[in-house]
Amino acid sequence: MTDRAETEAKIRDLIDPFNKKGVEIDGGTRFAQDLEWDSLTVMDFVASVEDEFDILISMNRAAEIETVDQLVDAVRQLESER
Amino acid sequence: MSDLFSKFDPLIQQREDLLSTGLTDPFNLVMEKVESPTVAICNGRRTILLGTYNYMGMTFDPDVVAAGKKALDEYGSGTTGSRVLNGTYAGHKAVEDALKDFYAMDHAMVFSTGYQANLGIISTIAGKDDYIILDIDSHASIYDGCALGNAQIVPFRHNDVEALEKRLKRVPEGAGKLVVLEGVYSMLGDIAPLKEMVAISKANGAMVLVDEAHSMGFIGENGRGVAEAQGIIDDVDFIIGTFSKSVGTVGGFCVSNHPKFEILRLVCRPYVFTASLPPSVVATAATSIRKLMDGADKRAHLWENSKRLHAGLRQLGFQLGTDEPQSAIIAVIMPDLETGAAMWEALLKEGLYVNLARPPATPANMTLLRCSLCAEHSGDQVEEILGMFAAAGRATGCI
Lengths: 82, 399
Known about the structure:
heterodimer, A: mainly alpha, Non-ribosomal Peptide Synthetase Peptidyl Carrier Protein, Chain A, B: alpha/beta, Aspartate Aminotransferase, domain 1, Aspartate Aminotransferase, domain 2, 2 domains, 14 helices, globular
């Protein structure tokens, strides 16, 4: 089990290739509104997070995740459930 | 009062911008007369139909039409009832028997549309703690089936065998798993690597549902679809199909060998809470399905048409959805919606109808001119079609 900062750093690395507008990322950054990702980009990004952490993020779960902080928490929870 | 329609403003604006250029609305075409599976009159003009999914050209088959007329005379215009109440006539059992014979399977359940077949089967068999693992490019009816149910939904990258396997292995121990695939994906006309995907799904304890809407009657030795062509149809738990493509009318179905399959008739809400198909529709469907069993010559001609159109369009310089023709769908990729709409209109003026497909229905935000061939297109018609593409493509600067 890694610490939260490490999980967040990994997620930020995964956001980079999708952050085409170069938006400044912090914990409160929202994927849809701030990064302006469409549903296809979200699905591609979710797949990369799943593969990095070896977890499943269902569409049901993903629909509840709006911000970077919420994603970090969800990933840590899913990792602990594994 | 907040207007609930405000959310549609961006789409309304996009449509107005497009139509203000004087363009014909691609989503409002009226077929004034239909002469045959391949020709209709649109805006007073004789138009070759190249976007109907009427793959086997059964809509004007004399036996099919006669069966419908006879049923209309003998059973009336409609059933006015659910399949589980007053809406099951002899014709509904007959079409289910025809499906069982066509697919050589034990059970067949007919729905009022193909959309409802996916909606009903997927939402009913996958429950709250089950996982549905589906190709990301799945049809809207599959996604809506997922949304209607309560299962956990996990998409994987289109046709990516490894991505499917990884996700299957991550499903929690003991959870039920349903893998949902399509034989032919209707936007680009590409087929799925079902052999590998079904084997991996079975190895990981999943049930498999394959939507063969765009392959029935055409692909596979007996026209049973891509699962038959790839030799794994016996490992598929549920096949979903439609009467609105090769069969030539309307309706949907699921066939299966699952021993408990018949219970679905009582628990599947999109089956129970809607009126059954009219007697004339099931009579035309049953007749058409039985004729499709002997359609080998038509299947061969349809493949010839598909190969010729694919090669001809590529020679003209169009960018296509697949490197080789894989089905009876040939997708021409347009650079953007404006060019696609202009090209669509230019083709219509030449006397050719194709489907304009655009986001969000298309993968990767593509605008497509989707062509679907018919076994009744003559070789001459295919050459005529290529001539129209050449003229319209040059007029709009696409080639």
